[in-house]
Design goal:
Chain lengths: ~110, ~120
């Protein structure tokens, strides 16, 4: 079936390193993708989005890359900080609702 | 505070109880959603409401009954639940179901434990 998934369930980095979180999607018709961050005890929060007519979009310390050829999405976090520790989800717009992947838990040690 | 408020934050209920989860948004959004978040699994879409009308029921068991009296409020009525229904229940809203700007705004969720 159609789904959005993440490659790694956990990622551990040192403070100051750059982090890369990956996601593979299977619905080639999806035209909008979002990365969410979920901290403990909270709901998912919007980080950055990208439309299918783009291959890169930058925010503050975050960059999303979209490779439609291999149906791959990635989130890059520059100079990772302890406050970035959370679960990260990618999601695709399936038309009537968002479909989410399983999530990657990012742990940042100082 | 995201603009989407869910109550209660925590709920413990027996399998024979009846309880309700409440979600309220003051963002002027027209679409509201219930998602279930279980450990080690992706967020699962349960229900979609657009302008108070249910537009999607993602094969959810009838022991979960949603209600949307207006575009700002969404309820999830629970009865005769099973222990495997224990999870974090998230409410979200968006301007419309096909939202392609900024995605959804989520509440903090209700942590449900069925005993």
């Amino acid at each position: 079936g159609e789904s959005v998934g993440l490659h790694l369930p956990t990622l551990s980095v040192q403070e100051g390193d750059n982090s890369i979180i990956n996601c593979a999607y299977s619905n080639s018709a999806s035209d909008y993708f979002i990365w969410y961050k979920q901290e403990s005890g909270k709901g998912p929060q919007f980080i950055i989005d990208i439309r299918s007519n783009m291959d890169k979009r930058q925010g503050q310390r975050v960059t999303v890359l979209l490779n439609k050829t291999v149906k791959h999405l990635s989130l890059q976090i520059a100079a990772t900080q302890p406050g970035d520790s959370a679960v990260y989800f990618c999601a695709e717009n399936a038309g009537t609702a968002l479909i989410f992947g399983k999530g990657t838990t990012l742990s940042v040690s100082s | 505070e995201t603009g989407v408020t869910q109550t209660p934050r925590h709920l413990v209920m027996g399998m024979t109880n009846k309880k309700s989860l409440k979600c309220e948004q003051h963002l002027g959004h027209n679409a509201m959603y219930w998602y279930k978040q279980s450990a080690k699994k992706p967020l699962e879409l349960m229900f979609v409401y657009n302008f108070k009308e249910q537009t999607e029921n993602n094969s959810v068991p009838s022991r979960f009954s949603p209600e949307c009296p207006n575009s700002s409020h969404l309820f999830l009525h629970l009865h005769t639940l099973q222990p495997e229904d224990s999870a974090l229940y998230l409410c979200a809203s968006s301007q419309d179901p096909g939202q392609t700007t900024y995605g959804y705004t989520f509440g903090s969720g209700t942590r449900l434990t069925v005993v």
